[in-house]
Design a protein that fits this description.
InterPro entries: FecR (IPR006860), FecR_C (IPR032508), Ferrdict_sens_TM (IPR012373). By secondary structure, the protein is of the alpha+beta class. It folds into 3 domains: 3-98, no CATH class; 116-249, Jelly Rolls; 259-337, Phage tail protein beta-alpha-beta fold, CATH 3.55.50. It has helices at residues 3-14, 20-37, 46-60, 76-98, 259-263, 275-286, 311-322; strands at residues 117-120, 127-130, 136-139, 144-147, 156-161, 163-167, 176-180, 183-187, 191-196, 203-209, 212-216, 227-230, 234-239, 244-249, 269-274, 289-292, 301-305, 324-329, 332-337. Strands 1-4-5-7-8-11-12 form a 7-stranded mixed β-sheet, with no helix packed on it. Strand 4 (144-147) and strand 5 form a beta hairpin. Helix 2 packs antiparallel against helix 4 (76-98). The longest helix is centred in the N-terminal third of the chain and has 23 residues, at 76-98. The radius of gyration is 28 Å and the shape is elongated.
Length: 342
């Protein structure tokens, strides 16, 4: 086994993703290290732990004939240790070749925070943090982000305290996780806000592009039933004391920049246009469901230029012209009023 392969194996072990054979292999060498040197995984960062373990493997493996167990002097216990090491290497290799499926198991090695980089924004202006995968995080004032120097090949995980805007590089095979308080936000490639309040323990997620899954923090990052999936212009707030999520719409919905809309922008100029067509254009532009309480409203004509107006201003103008009202109900907008002939 090469040093590079051993490094990857150790990273899997520290994430709790090893197979039983891989787990036994690493724990054998870790146990020998702790017994002989008194070194504890809690005192070492990832690089130092890897160096110590690899050096020990190099020292204890016989160099004369690969694969052959050679007794060293009269030290019976050392001979047994070498034999066990060789058996474990063979066991790990066969298991790894036959089945590369990872099994989540607990890890007795607890690393200190030296394996994570922490950036804190102590200024009044946003601080842009560039991650190694191409993603960027815009940290708000008095916020901090902890992240690894290099993400694993399976996933990308960061830890947020405070508020930040994330622009995540799209990598479907490597999900991106944001831990904030008791909430985890999982994405594949999108942009969104995460706002966490340490005093109330509330966490809010606003989606700008793409889709995200937001759920309560659980072991092994498995989505629990207490969670939601958000689309652009949708938001969710997690209330820690009540242990539940409340969904809604963001404060200022933006037109979703799809390839179709970029090629042919949606017109917000209406000339005697039925309300049903007006609302359909708004739904396409913002990705938000808009319903009418009274179906006879659908035929009411509207003449107006709503270009360069925010969504809620557009709705104000529409409702003023048609003597209607609207309200946000969760992630849906409900328009209420009488029909044109009423």
């Amino acid at each position: 086994m090469s040093r590079k392969k051993f490094g990857r194996l150790l990273q899997k072990y520290l994430r709790g993703e090893c197979t039983p054979a891989e787990k036994a292999f690493v724990e054998h060498w870790y146990g020998l290290l702790e017994t002989e040197t008194g070194a504890s995984g809690q005192e070492l960062d990832t690089d130092e732990l890897e160096n110590r373990l690899w050096s020990q493997i190099q020292r204890k493996m016989p160099k004369d004939e690969p694969g052959r167990i050679i007794p060293l002097g009269t030290n019976r216990f050392r001979w047994i240790g070498i034999a066990a090491s060789l058996l474990l290497i063979g066991w790990w290799y066969v298991a790894h070749q036959q089945n590369d499926t990872s099994v989540s198991v607990g890890s007795p090695i607890t690393l200190n925070r030296a394996d994570l980089i922490e950036r804190t924004n102590a200024s009044a202006s946003p601080l842009v943090v560039a991650l190694e995968d191409g993603s960027t995080v815009k940290l708000a004032a008095h916020s901090s982000l902890r992240f690894p120097k290099r993400f694993t090949t399976e996933e990308r995980t960061v830890y947020l305290t405070g508020d930040a805007f994330f622009s995540v590089a799209k990598m479907p095979s490597r999900p991106f996780y944001v831990h904030a308080g008791n909430v985890v936000t999982k994405v594949l490639g999108t942009s969104f806000f995460v706002r966490s309040q340490s005093d109330t323990k509330q966490v809010r997620v606003d989606v700008v592009t793409g889709r995200v899954a937001v759920y309560q923090n659980a072991p092994q990052k498995q989505t629990t039933s207490n969670g939601v999936v958000l689309s652009p212009n949708q938001t969710v707030t997690f209330f820690d004391e009540e242990q539940h999520f409340v969904t809604g719409l963001v404060e200022a919905p933006q037109v979703i920049r799809t390839a179709e809309i970029e090629k042919k922008p949606i017109s917000f100029q209406f000339d005697d246009t039925p309300l049903s067509e007006v609302l359909t254009r708004l739904e396409r532009a913002y990705g938000i469901d808009i319903e009418v309480e009274n179906e006879s409203q659908n035929n009411c004509p509207l003449t107006a230029d709503l270009t360069n107006q925010s969504l809620y201003t557009q709705l104000d103008i529409i409702c003023a012209a048609l003597k209607s009202t609207y309200e946000v109900q969760g992630t849906t907008i409900l328009v209420t009023g009488k029909g044109c002939g009423d």
